[in-house]
Amino acid sequence: MKVKHVDHGGLKSNWKAFVDFVKSNGDGAWYEYFFVFHEDEYDETYIFEDSLQLDKWLEQEFWEGCHYEVEDLESSMDEWKVWGLVPASSVEKFPILYDKARKTSIVSDGEQFYRKPVSISVEQTISVSAV
């Protein structure tokens, strides 16, 4: 799993490292980028280059962080905040979908990017099998 751990001492400096990372990688809207942080620990953040990596990491964090022990599973990961990048062309095309998106200073391959909050969904599953 390719995850970039960033620890520059605060949310603003970590966001700047994220911006620099995205700008240096280029490729515009072809890649997904996610900026992840814990609401109580702004000094450490994580960068993901696609949603599959992010999902694997969140699942790992769920189990390693013992989030399964809480009474309300659906909100068990609420302390983790995820921002995803969205190209301006998508925001302009589908404004209702991106009403919470905020403009960033990120421009890659001529495309302006917005950041939008991404919700984390924790769902119970049922497995049925013959024994």
Keywords for this entry:
alpha+beta; 131 residues; 6 strands; 3 helices; single chain
Account of the protein in words:
The protein is of the alpha+beta class and 131 residues long. It has a 6-stranded antiparallel beta sheet. The mean pLDDT is 85.
Give the arrangement of secondary structure elements:
Blueprint: E1 4-6, H1 11-25, E2 34-38, E3 41-48, H2 51-64, E4 80-87, H3 88-93, E5 102-108, E6 111-118
Antiparallel strand pairs: 1-3, 2-3, 2-4, 4-6, 5-6
Q: Give the strand order of the largest sheet, numbering strands 1, 2, ... along the chain.
A: 1-3-2-4-6-5
Identify low-pLDDT runs. Answer: none
End-to-end C-alpha gap: 33 Å
How is the main sheet built? 6 strands, antiparallel
Rg over CA atoms, rounded to whole Å, is: 16 Å
